Amino acid sequence: MSDSYRDRLDLEQLRRQAKELRDAARAGEVVSLERVVREVGARGPREVTLAVAQLVIARELGFASWPKLKAAVESRAGIMQRAAVFVAASVEDRERRARVLLEDDPRLARVDIRAAAVVGDVRLVGDVVAADRSAANAVDRERGWPPLLYVCYSRWHRIDPGRAAGMVEVARLLLDAGVSPDPNNGARPHHGYRSGLHGSVTANNPGITRLLLGRSANPNDGESLYQAAGHRDHECLRLLLDHGATVAGSWAVDVAVGGNDAEGVRLLLDAAKRQTPERLSELASTLLARACAAGAAPVVEELLAGGAEPSRLDQDGLSPLRRAVRAGHQEVVAVLLSRGVVDDATHVDRFLGAGARGDRLRAELLLSERPDLRDRLSARDRAAIVEVAGGGGATDAVRLMIELGFSPNARNDFGETPLHAAAAAGDGTPAARARRRTRRPGRQLRWHTPRIRDRHEWRTPQHQRRLGRQRPTPAQRRRGPNRRMGRRQATERGRLRGAA
Question: Domain check: are 422 and 474 in the same one?
Answer without folding.
Answer: no
